[in-house]
């Protein structure tokens, strides 16, 4: 069967692709830039944009891994109803919807449809830690706010594996799954784990909220995005740090640990 993976070039989407391929399925990957997709050769890479539903090829597709963002600024995708209608008309049966931290218009359109939908609600991806790589490589130090606020990040490969599982097996329709890793860790603890994986001492410099806001502004982030980051990182909702057993229940094995993630990605920090 053929599965359409949107966001296939992203941190989680690449793992959805590899999990579906490993299960012996055919994968069609949607990207706005096929020439830069760097996906495995057996993947059918197609050009398309979720903000323009007519460009999204649902024909012959059994299941869809669907993003809820419509651009590089993580803006909420507003074309959900049209995408869902086109998917239904084309005969799609299952949709795994990857939320963006909140139930938005795409999730609502999918829930109102006749499709067998499953909502994936991951906490922060472990892969977000890669934004620390440049300063770790350059100066062996990180400068971050909210050093002692816990989070239970999930390995993006587990998000990919869960999406592939709900798309290819029964029993997941109409369910919302909160996906976390196996432990809650503060930012300071995550840096210590990266330090251990590298065998190199790293310094953690705590930024005040005002310093963090200035830095994000200098990086060009809009004020509302900065407010979102401050709210999420400074006082996250309980689901961001409360460990769930969902990954293990769906995959039949424990979720990957942050230590595993740090070892796998150590070369990117050196
Ligand atoms: N990162 C996290 O901690 C986290 C946590 C919870 C949920 N999520 C959600 O997970 C999703 C993926 O996150 P990520 O970190 O894997 O993202 P990412 O690595 O930044 O990748 C973003 C992906 O979105 C695709 N994309 C963006 N706008 C598009 C459009 N208009 N049409 C088609 N494709 C578009 C990009 O495809 P091309 O550039 O190839 O077109 C790319 O594959 C996001 O929806 C995010 O909200 C992320």
From TrEMBL:
NmrA-like domain ranges (all copies): 4-210
InterPro entries xrefs: Ergot_Alk_Oxidoreductase, NAD(P)-bd_dom_sf, NmrA-like
Protein's UniProt name: Uncharacterized protein YbjT (DUF2867 family)
